[in-house]
Amino acid sequence: MLNVLFALQIQSPRSSPSDGINKETLQGEIKELKEKDLALDQEIAQLLAEGYSLDELEKHISLLHEYNDIKDAGQMLLGKLAVIRGLTTKDLYPEFDLELSD
Predict the structure, then answer these.
(1) Which of 19, 24, 43, 60 could potentially form a cystine with 15 if both were Cys, beta carbons 3.0 to 4.6 Å apart?
(2) If DSSP states are collapsed to H, E and C, what string results for 19-73?
(3) Which chain positions lie within coiled-coil regions (predicted)?
(4) How far apart are CA 79 and CA 91, in angstroms?
């Protein structure tokens, strides 16, 4: 349904059937996934009811992914600089006017 718009991180099963997992455990996991799917569908419906368009949602998700990629690259560079200087990344935050919550 509409939840295709959201990039879901699928968790690997806690164990595989070959590990002796029982049917009840699998059914419980299936139930949890169905509940998550329903919750996402409801969230999408709410956003659409609030006037967001599918194009807007897709663009927003795309921008969030881009932001996260850029932030990860920045964190990696900050970490490398900290190692070179013999500091922690936390020590470098003030130098670059960063907040710890950034």
Answers:
(1) 19
(2) HCCCHHHHHHHHHHHHHHHHHHHHHHHHHHHCCCCHHHHHHHHHHHHHHHHHHHH
(3) 23-50
(4) 11
Residue 4 has pLDDT above 50, yes or no: no
Residue pointed to by tokens 């927003």: 60
Same domain for 66 and 34, yes or no, is: no
**What total of structural domains would you count in the chain?**
2
Same domain, 44 and 76: no
Phi, psi of 14 (to 5 degrees): -60, -30
Q: What is the pLDDT of residues 5-15, one digit of tens each?
A: 444 444 445 55
Task: Quickly tell me which residue has 């990629």 as its tokens.
Answer: 69
Residue type, 2: L
57 and 47 share a domain?
no
The CA–CA distances, whole Å, from 93 to 68, 80, 85, 88, 102 equal 18, 13, 13, 9, 9
- The chain-wide mean pLDDT, for the chain, equals 83
